C-alpha cells in the first residue's frame, strides 16, 4: 500500500475535482472476455463507497465496493487487454480495477487520457483513505484487548 501514500497528500481542490467528475459519471468502454466492449456510464455513488455502472441487466451486481478494490493499474496490463490485441486502444486511456476475493478485473477504456488519470487518481485516493481507516481501526481493536 506504500504507493498509495502519495495520494493522501493531494490538494483538496484536486480531490474535489476528481470526486465531482467521478460522481457525475463518465462513459467508458468495459472490456469483457470474448465480447466486444460495452459502453457504460460509470460513476461513484453519493457516499463515495461504491463504483457503479449502468445500464446493467443485474443492477444489484453492477457495483464494486471501494474497500474491495485491491489495486488499480494504468495502461493495458491485464490479461483481458492482452487478449484484445486487435483493439487499438491508446494505453493512456486504459486502466484496470482489481477487486474482490477472487481478484476479478474490471477493464476500462476512457475516451481521453485525462479521464483515465482522473479516475485512477480518484480511486487511489479513496483506497488510501480506506486503508488508513482500516489500519487505524485494527490498531484500536488490538489496543483494546
TrEMBL record:
GO terms for cellular component: cytoplasm
GO molecular function ontology, one term from the record: phosphatidylinositol-4,5-bisphosphate phospholipase C activity
GO biological process, one term: phosphatidylinositol metabolic process
SMART domains per the UniProt record, alphabetical: PH (SM00233)
Any Pfam family the entry gives: PH_12
Domain of life from the UniProt record: Eukaryota
All copies of domain PH, residue ranges: 20-128
Cross-referenced PANTHER family: 1-PHOSPHATIDYLINOSITOL 4,5-BISPHOSPHATE PHOSPHODIESTERASE ETA-1 (PTHR10336:SF51), PHOSPHOINOSITIDE-SPECIFIC PHOSPHOLIPASE C FAMILY PROTEIN (PTHR10336)
Protein's name in the database: Phospholipase C eta 1
Organism: Myotis myotis (Greater mouse-eared bat)
Species lineage: Eukaryota, Metazoa, Chordata, Craniata, Vertebrata
Amino acid at each position: 500500500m506504500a504507493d498509495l501514500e502519495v495520494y493522501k497528500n493531494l490538494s483538496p481542490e484536486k480531490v474535489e475535482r476528481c470526486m465531482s467528475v467521478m460522481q457525475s459519471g463518465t462513459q467508458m468502454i468495459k472490456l469483457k472476455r470474448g465480447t466486444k466492449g460495452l459502453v457504460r456510464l460509470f460513476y461513484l455513488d453519493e457516499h463515495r463507497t461504491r463504483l457503479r455502472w449502468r445500464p446493467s441487466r443485474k443492477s444489484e451486481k453492477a457495483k464494486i465496493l471501494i474497500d474491495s478494490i485491491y489495486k488499480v493499474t494504468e495502461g493495458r496490463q491485464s490479461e483481458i487487454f492482452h487478449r484484445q490485441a486487435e483493439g487499438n486502444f491508446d494505453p493512456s486511456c486504459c486502466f484496470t480495477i482489481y477487486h474482490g476475493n477472487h481478484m476479478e478485473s474490471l477493464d476500462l477504456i476512457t475516451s481521453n487520457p485525462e479521464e483515465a488519470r482522473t479516475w485512477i487518481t480518484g480511486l487511489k485516493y479513496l483506497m488510501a483513505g480506506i486503508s488508513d481507516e482500516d489500519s487505524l481501526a485494527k490498531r484500536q481493536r488490538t489496543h483494546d484487548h
